[in-house]
Design goal:
167 residues; protein yfey like fold; 32% strand
């Protein structure tokens, strides 16, 4: 079986290069995870984006567009809370936990460095030394945002966890 090929004079190298480039782009596009949000999302004293403490728990999945929500429940008498896993492109972004009645939001746990606070800081980032914080051990909060808790590495001041919990 003979294989036909184009010589350099016929543009064969250009066609081969173009095909390889298209194949490479196809593989890159198919294998890359969605590492961005459809819009910036901020965790603050008011909640997570359009999700506020007074948002009914059943309306959470319709409060933010561009995200997937998976509802989980804990089947334990001691912990009857429900949890929404908030995802983007199959990656976990946050856990939203109900109170024991299942009707209101109790906590929001940030699981992605893509979500920032109002100071534009997220998981894995350093809190500047001159930032005033109220801390007990590794758990800190800003004086003007007592409902946001940061678990901070005490040596490096790196944010390890961000939790919203309305008191």
């Amino acid at each position: 079986m003979e294989r036909a090929s184009l010589s350099s004079a016929d543009g064969g190298e250009d066609i081969l290069s173009t095909r390889l480039l298209l194949i490479a782009l196809l593989f890159i596009g198919c294998s890359s995870q969605n590492t961005t949000l459809p819009y910036s999302l901020t965790i603050s004293e008011e909640g997570l984006g359009a999700i506020h403490p007074d948002t009914p728990f059943e309306q959470i999945s319709t409060s933010l567009s561009g995200f997937e929500f998976e509802k989980l429940s804990q089947i334990s008498p001691e912990h009857p809370e429900m949890i929404y896993q908030m995802k983007r492109g199959g990656r976990l972004i946050a856990h939203i936990v109900s109170d024991s009645s299942g009707k209101k939001i109790s906590e929001i746990h940030i699981l992605s460095p893509l979500i920032k606070n109002k100071h534009h800081l997220g998981l894995g980032e350093l809190i500047p030394q001159n930032t005033p914080l109220n801390c007990r051990d590794e758990l800190c909060s800003y004086p003007d945002e007592p409902s946001l808790y940061y678990r901070i590495d005490s040596k490096t001041r790196t944010i390890r966890e961000i939790t919203f919990q309305k008191l």
